[in-house]
Each structure stands twice: as C-alpha cells, then as structure tokens.
Specification:
By secondary structure, the chain is mainly β. The chain has four domains: 93 residues, Copper Amine Oxidase, Chain A, domain 1 (2-Layer Sandwich); 87 residues, OB fold (Dihydrolipoamide Acetyltransferase, E2P) (Beta Barrel), CATH 2.40.50; 100 residues, Immunoglobulin-like; 91 residues, Immunoglobulin-like. It has four helices and 43 strands. The strands form seven sheets. Strands 12, 13, 14, 15, 16, 17, 18, 19, 20, 21, 22, 23, 24 and 25 form a 14-stranded mixed beta sheet that branches. Strands 26, 27, 28, 29, 30, 31, 32, 33 and 34 form a nine-stranded mixed beta sheet that branches. A five-stranded mixed beta sheet has the order 36-43-42-38-39, with no helix packed on it. It is globular, with a radius of gyration of 26 Å. The termini are far apart.
C-alpha cells in the first residue's frame, strides 16, 4: 500500500507541475547544447552540439553545411562540398561519434573561407560567411542547382507535381520530374528510407537537387521525430513516458486512429508519433493510436479486429514477411510500416482476412515501427488498428568508430590495451558477432565485449614491430562489417 500511495503522489505532483515544466521545455527536444552555434549572428540549433574530444573542438559537419546553404556529400569519413566554383574536400581530421561526422572548426575557415571562431567565455561557436550565408539555392558540380528550405506546400494534383520550399524571404516551387529519387530522413532517430512525394510533409526540411537540364534528380526530405506512450496530459501539454514534453501549436495536425482530433480527445496510454520541424522544433504532426477492446466493436460496424506481421526479429535488406489483418469483410485494405512506408495494399484472401507481403527495400533503416492497418467498407472507414509487435530494419552494417592504438601509431608499451567501439543505426550490434584478431590469432575469448565495444589486454608481451589488428562486428539483422589497422610497438 505504501508503494502505491507514493506512486499516486508522484503522478499527482508531476501532473500539477507539468505546465511549469513544459514552459521550461517548450521546444520538446534535447537539453540546450553546452556549446552554442551562431551563423552570421543568428543562433542555430545544433543537435548533437559541438564537443571537445582530446582537446580539439569538433563540430557536426552536416548541420552547419545545411545552414550555410552548401551541399553535403559523404563517402566514409571524406566530406565534399561545393562553394561557388570551388570543390572543398575534407580527407583528414574528421571523427565519427555515434554515427555523426564531426570536423575540426578550422575546416569551416580554411576550406570555406568563412570566419569560424570559438568564444570560450560565452561557450559559443561563431561562423561568419559573407559569400554563402543562409542561401536557399546553390550551384553544384555539373551545372545543376540545389534548392533547400522548409516545405510550405506539396501539390500532388498538378502535372507534374511540385514542392514549394521557403528559406527566409526566398520562395521556390520546384516541379518534380518523373523518376526523381526520394530519401526520407529522420534525423532524431538517425534513420533514412526510400520514399515518394507522398512521404514529404509540410513543415519538413527539403533539399532538392536539380540537373543542368532542369529535371529533378533527388529530393532529401528531413524531419525529427519522437515516439512513445502518453504518460500525462495537462491542458494542451502532452508528457510522454520518456519525459519528452509535446506542445501542439495552431499548425499541428493531430489525428487519433486516423481521424482528426484535439488534444482533449487523447488519453493516458495512447501511442503517439510526433513529427517536428528541424529548424524551429515546432510540432507539425501528432499521430495518435488507441487499441479498442474487441468487445466495444458494435455488431455490423466496420472494424479491424487485429493486424500483425509474421516476424518479430530485426530485418535487413531483402528480408520479407507477411501481414495479416482481420476485420469486416468486403472492404479495401491497406497498411503502413510506421510512418516510413504508407498506403501499402492488402488483398482479401478469404472473407474478413486481408493479407500482404513486405520486403525490406534498399536503403531502409528504421526502428520499432508498428504496423498500422486501414480498412474501408462501402465508404465507411474503420478506426486505424496498430499491431502489438514492432519491426526494426537496417540496410546498413554497424560501424567501427574509435580504435586504439590508432592506425600508424607507435607505442612504447609491449602489452598495450587494444580496443574498438561500435556504432549502429536502427538495429543494435549483436555482441556474439564481435571478433578480434591480433597478428592472425583470434583473441576474442580473452577480450571483454558487448554491443558498444571490445577491449583486449594481452596476457604476454609483444616484441617490437608492427601489430596487425582486425575487428569484425555484426548487428542483430545480420549486417556485418570489419576493420583492419596496424600500429607499432617500439620499447627500445
């Protein structure tokens, strides 16, 4: 009884103080960055923020280049961008931390001709660029152009369809050519999937690459998301079970089980997917779902009894699974894989049983996506149903981030600690997949390993000379990678 009373007291206290807590966390995101960033005097929200590593100030590259209106092309740890007629490449000095590529601050001054300084008193990175600034359009190699900005409109009815983006006072409507490639990127979840024009939402941040002949080559649509269950509600404020505070605004589209709703329609325990604007952290869309007990379904009404995938394990590119949905017979049915792939068809294989098959496409990378079922019978739509199990998939292998001793390093210790750390996307690393080989010998059994790192302390001394190391790592979907390097021992 005492524990129950304490829990009730905490919930009451949390609900009572929620408005004040929400006010202090109005942008519903991560805590303020320890090191702030401004570009041409304007504050820039950067997540993750700059950080010091080994005494060096490192800055996340992509977010800064996007803000400067410059293209970002990454191949491994090599970054290439285009400023005017100049191509700038960063080959050395970059660092990958948890899948985010950082570069020393000097990259922005030496390479881009911008003024880039760090103010230690104000703990702020200041970048001044008179040549590029907050441009919504830049020239790219090959005579093409790149338009970028916040999506203001998506016109699927025009021929050809179009996307309108704005950046400051600049407004540009780009007509989308047949065959244009779409990449949908959730920067908060570090996921990206192939998509279509229907996947682009108003409020997202789009980068549209146009060829020299005026045809659209690629659209990269980016947003930030949150997912969880509602833990508490107070007025217009929503608290999720992981502590995130969600505050809808006048532009927020809110739905419950596929039907337009208001915050007052939501309940504690509802599942929600939240979509944010990258530039402002403004909440643009809240998709809520609630599982209705079967006993509440009225006889003769249009309803979905269940929708479930046939697997509950992580998947990789090319893996397939079936979806079975049961509900009112004689209807038209579709399903969504989370918010990533929507409107996929189901066929009625027997009365009231709708089935389909999904194959993980190239580039898919998403985590904990439920299956949503939709059913319409003679013009009447059933409440959206959600699967009990969730799907994770990745087309990308895990990465090997920090290593020690580093490639080419000379150490004066004959028994140096050897380690490597790992990064993973939507699917976590499988600790049992990690293998460490030193000078041709498998030393995994003598090492400490988990999903984040492997570390080995040699039991006997190595002689002077080169030491060759190979580490192999895989994720729970079966994607794998390896990294080899050499360091030197010199004790005399």
């Amino acid at each position: 009884m005492t524990l129950r009373c304490v829990c009730v007291f905490l919930l009451v206290a949390m609900t009572a103080t929620l408005p004040a807590f929400a006010k202090a966390n109005r942008h519903a995101g991560p805590a303020p960055a320890e090191i702030a960033v401004s570009i041409n005097g304007a504050p820039l929200s950067v997540e993750p923020p700059p950080r010091f590593v080994g005494g060096r100030l490192l800055v996340p590259v992509r977010r800064i280049l996007d803000a400067l209106g410059l293209p970002f092309d990454r191949r491994g740890k090599t970054i290439t961008t285009q400023a005017g007629d100049h191509t700038i490449t960063l080959n050395e000095g970059s660092v990958e931390l948890r899948g985010i590529l950082y570069a020393p601050l000097r990259f922005f001054s030496a390479g881009l001709g911008a003024s880039a300084e760090y103010d230690p008193r104000g703990r702020k990175v200041e970048i001044i660029s008179g040549s590029v600034g907050h441009s919504s359009v830049v020239s790219v190699a090959g005579g093409g152009r790149e338009y970028m900005g916040v999506v203001q409109a998506v016109d699927n009815d025009s021929r050809p369809p179009s996307i309108t983006v704005t950046s400051g006072a600049s407004v540009k409507t780009v007509r989308i050519s047949p065959g244009a490639q779409f990449v949908i990127s959730d920067v908060a979840a570090n996921t990206s999937v192939p998509g279509s024009l229907e996947s682009v939402h108003v409020g997202d941040y789009a980068k549209i690459s146009v060829r020299k002949d005026g045809s659209v080559d690629r659209v990269i649509d980016s947003f930030a998301s949150a997912h969880g269950k509602i833990a508490a509600l107070s007025g217009n404020t929503i608290l999720l079970n992981d502590g995130q505070v969600i505050i809808p605004t006048g532009v927020t589209a809110l739905s419950l089980n596929g039907v337009g709703a208001r915050t007052t329609d939501l309940q504690v325990g509802d599942d929600v997917d939240v979509r944010y604007n990258l530039e402002t952290s403004e909440v643009r869309e809240i998709i809520a779902s609630r599982r209705a007990p079967t006993a509440m379904i009225a006889a003769g009404s249009v309803a979905i009894e269940s929708v479930e995938p046939s697997v509950n394990r992580p998947l990789r590119q090319g893996d397939s699974f079936s979806i079975t949905m049961r509900g009112t017979p004689g209807g038209q049915a579709t399903y969504d894989v989370g918010a990533y792939f929507t409107g996929l068809p189901l066929r009625e294989s027997s009365p009231g049983v709708y089935t389909g098959r999904y194959t993980v496409p190239r580039g898919a990378n998403f985590a904990f996506a439920p299956i949503f079922g939709h059913l319409t019978v003679r013009g009447t739509e059933a409440p959206r149903a959600q699967s009990a199990s969730e799907i994770s998939a990745s087309s990308l292998p895990p990465g090997v981030a920090d290593i020690a001793p580093e490639q080419g390093q000379t150490v004066n210790n004959s028994q140096p600690s050897i380690y490597a750390t790992f990064t993973a996307g939507a699917v976590p690393v499988s600790p049992s997949s990690v293998v460490l080989i030193v000078n041709g010998h498998d030393v995994t059994a003598s090492a400490t390993r988990n999903a984040r790192f492997i570390e080995y302390h040699p039991l006997s001394a190595y002689g002077d000379g080169d030491v060759r190391v190979t580490v192999r790592v895989g994720d729970m979907a079966g994607n794998s990678t390896s990294k080899s390097w050499t360091f030197t021992i010199r004790t005399h």
